[in-house]
Amino acid sequence: MYRPILKIPKTRSEKVCDYIGVIIFLLSIFYIAVMWGKLPEEIPVDFNGKGEIDRWGSKIELIILPFIGVFLWIIMSLLEKVPHMYNFPARLNEQNVEAFYLNSRKMLNEVKNFCLILFAVISFQMIRIALGETTSIGWWFLPIVVIGIFIPIIKGIIVTRKIK
């Protein structure tokens, strides 16, 4: 199958998504550091589909989210650089290869940065709950997660179907 290795520069929208995702994520790490001394020893660490607390645990567990976020960011950033390794329809050819690569890379970029923002929001809400500012992560959380992950994927599929 035709799979050339192309160096396609990041688009403006990909760069903006990267900046927004990384800045919000770094702010959440900064917020964790600033609030660390104010946190009780036990904080909420697991939530059900309604956003209610399922389990309380050590505040050390709050550090896990940034590590997972950094790991995901690194892996997904590396995957963005190798679109020739993705799975594409059989109609991939010299004329449309750049469009396929760019579309799939944009989709991955949006999901990557949504995950960073998601981890930032989870950290923020865990701290707010631990400090007694709210009682749950919010009923809205699960629908936002589902919508936020599926919109880039559905958008990417639609664009892929339109590529000739």
TrEMBL record:
Domain DUF1648, first and last residues per copy: 23-69
InterPro entries, alphabetized: DUF1648 (IPR012867)
Alphabetically ordered keywords of this record: Membrane, Transmembrane, Transmembrane helix
Source taxon at top rank: Bacteria
Transmembrane domains' residue ranges: 16-36, 56-79, 114-131, 137-158
Name used for this protein in its record: DUF1648 domain-containing protein
The organism of origin for this protein: Lysinibacillus fusiformis
